[in-house]
Backbone:
DNA sequence: GCTTTTGCCGTGTACGTTAACGGAACTGTT
DNA sequence: AACAGTTCCGTTAACGTACACGGCAAAAGC
């Protein structure tokens, strides 16, 4: 299907390209009658603006502000995806500006957000993990008509251009299932929680809720599930006590510190049979996975999240096309056997 | 980092844009001395051709020939990914032309391939599942300087612009692992093979090899593994005989017909305990997965394969950027719990 | 010496869109 | 009738690249 140009529209309508342009851009100053005529011809002629011509003319560089933490490999991978996407789109005028905040510090988030906003970006990618403050910031962005994309966590009320991340509740549900494959009866499980770290985190809560839901649905008593609260500088002596009845233990680690727990189990020379599941394909977790010390890792595809974040803004800003508002990452199950092929 | 334009290069070199253009396009007719000067300035000025300007000028539509089978949902999903990608890139001049062949018929492949080549496409996406003929075709494409991308299966010798698909061997290995989770000793397994269908298929062979490798590595006797050859219009009476010793059976279905096998098991009222794994997230398999009649499905991400195939050619033809030659799909493990989030 | 060939280079136009600018035609006011 | 204000529209110059075309000089040919 061939596409018509504004010049052709102008010819057919008996007006000039300037008029056609005013109609198509809703810049006013055109008689209702001619406006309708132009629109009619445009529609019939399958008019779509030529992306190349538009961007050549505008000759704009698109500044994307990236508002993320950087404290671990998960976030670094997320950044890597963003950088790779940006370098692909570099020739199309996409440029990045990173603003890094400390996710245990609300003020640092606000400070960096304000810096980002002051830079008057064309689009923003952010992880709204500090919810209240993120809502404030998004309200500001909305007022300034700056599109923003969420990665990692969602904040439905803030109505982002797109959310890119995982269904955390369901991932916990899946974790419970995987821990119980091959066992017909409900099994004892321990959830490890870092008191100084996970307690502020909605994501962790949702994973745990999903985990419990599985036990409920199976008709297993929730008393099977214990929560091990771990303060900073922890010891896992308590693990032994929880496994006396049958010597087998299920460990659900709802954050990315699986490797730490495993190391601790080793140092306390725990010998009961265990099945362990954790989150995030960071190198230390991959190591323990390959060593058969962890059975499953659920991957959040941080690289892809970052990549898709940039792509969403690219589509919105440059192509001016539709963007899927909800882009759920798959609930990737990683084992020793397939971890090499995960991204 | 700002980018220089050919006009600026021309100015600095004291020549005209025409000369700069001749240098950059290696069209000759320019003195060695000025050529070197121009290249030097271009390099120092970080020259990159403006994608918008180039494509506006060229005003080309890029015709991609898609050479795939269409006999089942797997291939249809693959096509869907291709179509979606193409519609995203439509405004950039990407157009598709489908050529559908019957994968059990060499001649139909050759016929469609030749049609595709005669259409003088700018790029080709194909599944080289009929290996010998595919090599012929690729040789022709190479002679015509037409870039081609492989999806689904690879053919290393043909040196495609990119291969996009799964490591089939490793996927079989993974399947064996998943079937044996929770069992410390080697377990009896049955592999189902469609004699009229799978026998020509290299992919199936590799999956089975990978499956066996797992047993070997565990030190389990290969005699545990039986192969059930299924002719057209099959009956699965034999299944019962293979499970008398302990009543538990592992089923490995190395193709996408898992749902058929399950239906047969039901109709023969087989009551032994089974764990079943198959391939491909087609609706019928999703149904039996959700019904708890199948434990795992390994997904090949056909949608993503198709999407990435178009993207690879887009990058090569329009952006003129680098394309990763080996793009392995993750070995996606699907269960009842996460199948909704797979793509 | 002249013409012809060759090597090298500049000019000009077009691709489709955008938006500033200016101007014609019309309306309303004094 | 003169003027200002409003509404509507056309003209034009970019944006950076690609390439056809023509042209000038030096080298080659007779």
Residues:
């Amino acid at each position: 299907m061939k596409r018509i140009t504004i010049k052709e529209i102008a010819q057919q309508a008996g007006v000039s390209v300037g008029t056609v342009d005013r109609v198509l851009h809703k810049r006013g100053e055109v008689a209702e009658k001619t406006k309708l005529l132009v629109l009619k011809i445009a529609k019939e002629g399958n008019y779509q603006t030529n992306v190349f011509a538009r961007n050549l003319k505008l000759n704009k560089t698109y500044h994307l502000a990236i508002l993320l933490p950087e404290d671990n490999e998960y976030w670094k991978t997320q950044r890597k995806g963003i950088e790779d996407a940006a370098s692909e789109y570099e020739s199309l005028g996409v440029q990045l500006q990173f603003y890094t905040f400390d996710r245990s510090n609300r003020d640092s988030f606000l400070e960096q957000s304000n810096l980002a906003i002051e830079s008057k970006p064309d689009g923003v990618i952010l992880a709204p993990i500090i919810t209240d403050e993120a809502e404030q910031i998004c309200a500001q962005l909305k007022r300034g008509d700056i599109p923003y994309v969420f990665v990692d966590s969602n904040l439905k009320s803030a109505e982002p251009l797109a959310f890119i991340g995982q269904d955390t509740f369901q991932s916990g549900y899946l974790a419970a299932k995987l821990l119980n494959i091959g066992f017909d009866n409900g099994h004892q499980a321990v959830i490890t929680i870092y008191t100084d770290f996970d307690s502020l985190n909605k994501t962790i809560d949702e994973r745990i809720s999903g985990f419990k839901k599985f036990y409920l649905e199976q008709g297993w008593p929730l008393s099977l599930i214990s929560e091990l609260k771990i303060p900073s500088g922890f010891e896992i002596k308590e693990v032994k006590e929880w496994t006396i009845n049958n010597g087998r233990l299920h460990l659900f680690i709802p954050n990315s510190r699986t490797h730490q727990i495993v190391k601790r189990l080793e140092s306390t020379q725990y010998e009961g049979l265990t099945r362990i599941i954790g989150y995030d394909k960071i190198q230390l977790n991959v190591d323990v996975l390959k060593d058969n010390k962890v059975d499953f890792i659920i991957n959040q595809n941080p690289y892809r999240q970052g990549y898709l974040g940039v792509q969403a803004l690219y589509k919105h800003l440059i192509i001016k096309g539709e963007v899927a508002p909800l882009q759920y990452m798959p609930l990737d199950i990683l084992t020793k056997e397939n971890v090499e092929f995960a991204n």
Observations:
- Chain B has a mean pLDDT of 89.
